[in-house]
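User: For my dataset I need records formatted as: sequence, then structure tokens, nothing else. Please produce one.
Assistant:
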Amino acid sequence: MNMQTPSGYPHGSAPAQVAFDRRELSVILSVYGRMVAAGEWRDYGISCLRDMAVFSVFRRTAEHPLYRIEKRPRLRGKQGQYAVVGMDGQILKRGHDLKTVLRVLERKLIRVVE
């Protein structure tokens, strides 16, 4: 029998690293695909760290990320575990719902047609 604590982790230990699940990656890659099709983005990278997971978006491979989509489970009960961070480190949007947080990136696709 496997003994688990109320937190859901066996013996009270936290997971070794935070990662995006399949549903989260599907939402992120949907936005990423639209931005690639629009010619805005060209590459991405995923980092799974001890306290957060990061999906970094690049215009070109050998540069700093344009945006970072971060998942920080420790902030789940506070501001929300998802955040979009700009190139300068400024938090553009934070929240509990990933789709809502990613809307800040989709505004970049809307252009005025004259």
